[in-house]
Design goal:
Blueprint lengths: L6 H9 L8 H8 L20 H15 L11 H13 L5 H11 L7 E3 L5 E6 L9 E6 L14 E3 L9
Length: 168
């Protein structure tokens, strides 16, 4: 494990020898495994002592790794990966501002994804609701009893921000 934690140092040393590379690149590669709470490596830096680009790369790399199948585990669904990043941001492992920025780009519930609502119906996500990450606008496709909901049904489109219904 300690040997693995040395790779940022080796990366820094190698990248510093590459002519023409911006000076920020070796620094970001060196700091990418640091955590906001000081529990990262190689120097246990914390907070703003970690370059912003390294904090961004750490979150982007984690999201990409979580949503990609690995030989030792299946890929996580984007929602589950984002949920994990949010939890880790609360624990200060990731920069919460960076996770929030990723959330704006990726969305907790991607457009077109299907979800089950708290009333037992099935819906498709039409769009996000800016800061209300858990309350997108959805189109109900099927009622809890299995009956299809037509496009012209006045109850088909639901803004979950304005409803007592939620996503399960």
């Amino acid at each position: 494990f300690l040997e693995v934690q040395k790779h940022p140092i080796r990366s820094l040393e190698l990248l510093e020898k590459v002519p023409g590379i911006p000076t920020v690149v070796p620094l970001v590669c060196y700091q990418v495994h640091e955590s906001m709470n000081g529990e990262g490596y190689p120097r246990r830096r914390r907070g703003n002592s970690i370059h912003l680009f390294a904090r961004i790369l750490k979150v982007a790399d984690a999201y990409a790794a979580l949503t990609t199948r690995r030989p030792y585990r299946p890929r996580m669904m984007p929602y589950a990966a984002m949920e994990l990043l949010i939890r880790k941001a609360r624990d200060m492992a990731y920069d919460a501002v960076v996770v929030r920025a990723l959330l704006h780009v990726v969305s907790l519930f991607p457009i077109g994804s299907l979800c089950t609502l708290s009333d037992g119906s099935v819906a498709r996500v039409l769009r996000s609701n800016r800061e209300q990450y858990t309350q997108p606008v959805v189109q109900r496709l099927q009622r809890a009893n299995g009956e299809s909901v037509g496009d012209d049904d006045p109850d088909a489109i639901i803004d979950l921000r304005e409803s007592e219904i939620s996503i399960c």
